[in-house]
From TrEMBL:
Name of the molecule in the record: Putative O-methyltransferase YrrM
Pfam families on file: TylF
Highest taxon of source: Bacteria
GO molecular function, one term: methyltransferase activity
Tagged with keyword Aminoacyl-tRNA synthetase: no
């Protein structure tokens, strides 16, 4: 993929100002100057149309020296709904974005909006949306063609599944894992105000890596709505509560009816087995673990977050007297017995195609967690992982329910 040469701030600003009478103004034969690095927000809006129902090709041309945090949206002007969203990135020289979308109805006008974060220097010279043949998206660098088309916008997250094999969708696992590992969806997700709000909800209350927050964001926002059944979310091993708050915030502000059940002793690790666990009893013990989490929950109005305090074997039987089912189980409890108990207790309550997400098995200090996955999921239940980066993700009942 062609990379543009680095420019200094002054050189970029000089190029921008030389290309138009003023930053942000339209000039002949130009879509517009989007940003000179001094601000953020929606820097550009253009309306095109009408368009008949069917596939359309979108292309954005220009120059970007620093394009991290820049993304575009195509919006149906009449319905005010997002048709397509993607990241601005250099595809080839002067081509900053290219994609194909499928209009579900005739559209009189489509608004093209481009957003940038502060520090992004971006110039658009031409912006084009036109009817085309299906999948008429041509990219010069064929080695990146598959990755770019699959992972650069949420439209791909809505494509039909190519099919299940051995109980998992290899396409879905790759779409999440490769895109995050190679930074195809990261900037797109990080530019989403919903992700920023959820991150603020979790701030200071988690040891989870940013990649895992991003993966959970993608799962909750784009994949859980595809499941036929509703189902709640359960977390085994909450610690300070950052991930539970993050998930509850996402559900709350996407108007989902799902609830988050967060289970923990809130008093550190229980008794462990030295022959299989590196962690010891009392690890992760901190004063007032529930206090800040409860304060944050109340401040954000997260009435969809239910905290369950105690050992799993004491709290789960009582909790499961209710007729609960789960679309996602987040198992983050580090040691063999806790991981094994979590999986055994929840596996028969997962909706068809539900996600079991393991945080720990690949961590250096969590050999016990990996042993539980190997013995129970791999060897006994003959399950295959759909995704191994940044989480280990399994699907339950995919072949039967899809």
């Amino acid at each position: 993929m062609t990379k543009l040469a680095e420019m200094s701030d002054s050189e970029a600003k000089e190029l921008l100002l030389a290309s138009a009478t003023g930053v942000g103004k339209l000039v002949p034969d130009m879509a517009g100057v989007l940003a000179d690095g001094s601000g953020d927000g929606m820097m550009f809006k253009q309306v095109q149309g009408p368009f008949p129902k069917g596939p359309c090709r979108f292309a954005l041309y220009g120059h970007a020296d620093s394009y991290v945090g820049a993304f575009y949206e195509l919006i149906d002007s009449a319905q005010q709904c997002i048709l397509f969203r993607g990241r601005v990135a250099t595809v080839e020289k002067n081509l900053l974005a290219v994609a194909c979308l499928d209009l579900q109805r005739d559209s009189q006008s489509v608004e093209i909006r481009v957003y940038v974060r502060q520090g992004t220097r971006l110039l658009v010279t031409r912006c084009m949306l036109r009817p085309c043949s299906p999948f008429d998206v041509k990219i010069k660098d064929e080695s990146d063609n598959f990755l770019y088309n699959i992972f650069d916008s949420d439209t791909l997250l809505r494509l039909p599944l190519p099919g299940a094999r051995k109980g998992v969708s290899l396409h879905d696992g790759a779409a999440r894992g490769i895109s995050l590992q190679q930074d195809k969806l990261r900037a797109f997700c990080e530019a989403d105000p919903l992700f920023h709000g959820a991150q603020r909800a979790a701030h200071g209350l988690s040891l989870v890596t940013r990649e895992r927050f991003l993966n959970m964001f993608i799962l909750l926002k784009y994949y859980l709505p595809k499941l036929d059944a509703q189902g709640d979310i359960i977390e085994f091993g909450t610690f300070r509560g950052g991930m539970a708050l993050f998930m509850a915030y996402l559900l709350k502000f996407t108007k989902s009816r799902r609830r988050v059940y967060a289970l923990d002793t809130f008093e550190g690790m229980p008794l462990t087995e030295s022959a299989q666990d590196y962690h010891k009893q009392g690890d992760f013990k901190e004063d007032n673990l529930m206090g800040e989490m409860l304060r944050r929950k109340e401040m954000l109005g997260l009435d969809n977050l239910i905290l369950v305090k105690g050992l799993f074997e004491n709290t789960v039987p009582t909790l499961f007297q209710e007729k609960l089912s789960f679309a996602l189980a987040h198992i983050d409890c580090d040691i063999y017995d806790a991981v094994a108990y979590s999986y055994e207790s929840v596996k028969d309550r997962m909706v068809a195609g539900g996600y079991v997400v393991f945080d720990d098995p690949l961590a250096a200090s969590c050999q016990g967690a990996m042993a539980a996955v190997e013995e129970l999921l791999y060897h006994r239940d003959k399950l295959h992982a759909e995704q191994v980066y940044p989480h280990m993700v399994f699907r339950l009942g995919l072949e039967q329910g899809f």
